[in-house]
Specification:
three-stranded antiparallel beta sheet
Length: 364
């Protein structure tokens, strides 16, 4: 039987306060959402500014803005300089919109009312096994964003920032330059492709996604299209994936779907791939139990929003083998994200490759 510290001990109060901080975690998320939406960090990028000045440029109520920024300072996001002037901390710079690795687009998205209300139904998802978002909104999140293009655009921005960070890390950890033509399956507005084509001058890419997503591709990608180095192909990755690539990338795609749907996507990729081509998954790979906070929290995000899930390496192997793939190697990239390189099983003599390099082998 676990014994709790006595009510009057210092340990008990410290533990209670730690738990209270967790209980109030929603406050931090909403405060960061407001800060990102008001672009506060961008206004502080160069120097400290006064509340009066910030309230003027953000059209905010001065006294209320001060209270928000004072609270953010206690979280280590801002620094109060005195005389109601604030500056950014090192961590706070990642709330700027114009820096590599920015979390501002994600902070803006998670505080949106449609997103927030889905999380309010987490209890329903745990009790029934249904997707929380679908229960609240009467449709899946993908249909909702098509019906509300302003939310789709905010989602695209959040995913572009995340995929760009994954792309930079994946290129540092893994040699994508050995492929001449990469097909980015479900690549959104092209953040991964943009980084790839910028880094590898001889590479070509195909960006594949639904028509309404490709309609929002930024001009930076359009320049590579006009230069003949990138093709935009629209379609449904449950039906068909473009042929002709020597590498196929699924960057944060499979975690959005349950096992049956994820296997369907993989089989479409398998049909499109020529002998010798490779499949690259950029996905969270869950570690040993009670060791992977980032991965398991992301797993709850999938349970609430999409009906998908995060997976261990063993679970990825099961999916991949069912779709006709063998795992070649697993390379950690950033945070809980790894690059899983796969080949068609019929390309490999003797079946699946036995040796897998992974820092998370214990998850099996």
């Amino acid at each position: 039987m676990t014994m709790l510290p006595t009510a009057h001990s210092g340990h008990a109060e410290r533990d209670r306060q730690a738990m209270m901080h967790l209980v109030r975690g929603f406050q931090a998320s909403q405060m960061l959402h407001v800060a990102a939406t008001l672009r506060l960090a961008d206004h502080l990028a160069v120097e400290a500014r006064s509340i009066a000045n910030l309230a003027d440029v953000t059209s905010a109520h001065p006294a209320s803005l001060y209270r928000l920024m004072r609270a953010l300072a206690t979280l280590g996001v801002l620094r109060e300089e005195g005389d109601r002037r604030f500056s950014l901390t090192a961590a706070g710079h990642y709330l700027r919109w114009d820096v590599p690795g920015s979390v501002a687009p994600m902070a803006e998205m998670i505080g949106r009312p449609y997103f927030w209300s889905a999380w309010g139904n987490l209890l329903g998802a745990v009790r029934t096994g249904a997707t929380s978002f679908d229960d609240v909104h009467g449709r899946d999140v993908w249909t909702y964003r098509v019906d509300h293009p302003e939310e789709g655009a905010i989602f695209d921005g959040a995913m572009a920032a995340t995929r760009e960070a994954v792309a930079r890390s994946a290129h540092e950890a893994f040699d994508l330059g050995r492929f001449s033509h990469i097909v980015d399956v479900g690549g959104g507005n092209g953040a991964f492709v943009l980084h790839l084509l910028t880094v590898h001058q001889a590479a070509r890419a195909t960006l594949f996604d639904q028509p309404h997503v490709l309609a929002r591709v930024p001009d930076a990608v359009g320049q590579f299209v006009r230069a003949g180095r990138c093709d935009l192909r629209s379609g449904d990755f449950f039906s068909e994936v473009p042929a002709g690539g020597d590498a196929y990338v699924l960057n944060w795609i499979l975690h959005d779907w349950d096992d049956a749907a994820a296997t369907g996507i993989l089989r479409c990729c398998h049909r499109a791939m020529a002998p010798g081509s490779r499949l690259m998954l950029c996905e969270a790979v869950l570690g040993a139990p009670a060791t992977d906070a980032d991965g398991t929290l992301l797993d709850i995000m999938m349970m609430v929003m999409t009906g998908g899930r995060e997976r261990t390496l063993a679970e990825f192997r099961t999916l991949l083998e069912a779709a006709g793939f063998s795992v070649l190697c697993v390379t950690p990239a950033i945070g809980c994200i790894s690059v899983i390189e796969c080949a068609r099983a019929d390309d490999i003599d003797g079946g699946p490759v036995a040796a897998v390099k992974s820092l998370r082998a214990a998850s099996e």
